Amino acid sequence: MSYRNIMALKYLTQKLAKTIDEELMSQAGGFSVDQLMELAGLSVAQAITKVYDKSRYSRILICCGPGNNGGDGLVAARHLFHFGYEPNIFYPKQTKNELYQRLITQCNNLDIPFTNNLPDQLKQNDLVVDAIFGFSFTGEIRAPFDQVIQELKETKLPIASIDIPSAWDVEKGNISGHGFTPAMLISLTAPKLCAKQYNGVHFLGGRFVPPKLEKKYDLQLPLYPGTEQVIDITNLSGEKL
């Protein structure tokens, strides 16, 4: 496996993460939000298959928030279904935005169940995907997600978080103490500073960053192996920006 200066991998501030995202979706970047969401969700699903074999972790509960992180979770659910898993979705605060409605329709067309009973589902599944809050989240955690975060904190099921563990500060980590520590973290595009405080299984996904943008922000991204959409960066350190 080739790493290409992997020890210099950069960890992003919230401001820089937003800047890169906006540049990717600018006229110059050429990406649409649904394109990036599709690639992110595929990366998440593929990373999960690397760690959680469907013979033991077939039933997966995807907990979705109202923003782009939740959209990544909806996409991941669809791919996990096609990979042979049995996903079901907890999505308590759905948006009427057309993009998200299409993602819901895609899941409905696969008969992926949507549930409103989180405590019950935590007893019936083997793994939880945390797709609640992404790197743009700020402020206090409001209902119903304050209770959702608490229930995830108390569950004994392994949790795989998308991009950042929900309720963590994007740069400082779990400083409030309200968040949980996932068993797995799938960073997208580049890891965020809070991942410096994380010691579990850590994958990087998002094999779509143009070389010019990578060079502009000196991201020092790894070379993804073969046709993989993810790479294991567990135990690797990076340089703060």
UniProtKB/TrEMBL annotation:
Keywords for the protein's UniProt record, in alphabetical order: Cytoplasm, Isomerase, Metal-binding, Mitochondrion, NAD, NADP, Nucleotide-binding, Potassium
Domain of life: Eukaryota
Keyword Nucleotide-binding assigned: yes
Residue stretches making up the YjeF N-terminal domain: 17-221
One GO cellular component term noted in the UniProt record for this chain: mitochondrion
Cofactor: K(+)
Subcellular location: Cytoplasm; Mitochondrion
GO MF terms held by the record: metal ion binding; NAD(P)HX epimerase activity; nucleotide binding
Cofactor note: Binds 1 potassium ion per subunit.
Reactions performed catalytically: (6R)-NADHX = (6S)-NADHX; (6R)-NADPHX = (6S)-NADPHX
Residues bound to (6S)-NADPHX: 68-72, 134-140, 163
EC number: 5.1.99.6
Ligand binding (K(+)): 69, 130, 166
Family annotation (PROSITE patterns): YJEF_N
UniProt xrefs under InterPro entries: YjeF_N_dom (IPR004443), YjeF_N_dom_sf (IPR036652), YJEFN_prot_NAXE-like (IPR032976)
Family, as annotated: Belongs to the NnrE/AIBP family.
Functional description taken from the UniProt entry: Catalyzes the epimerization of the S- and R-forms of NAD(P)HX, a damaged form of NAD(P)H that is a result of enzymatic or heat-dependent hydration. This is a prerequisite for the S-specific NAD(P)H-hydrate dehydratase to allow the repair of both epimers of NAD(P)HX.
NCBIfam families to which the protein is assigned, alphabetical: yjeF_nterm (TIGR00197)
Name of the protein in question: NAD(P)H-hydrate epimerase
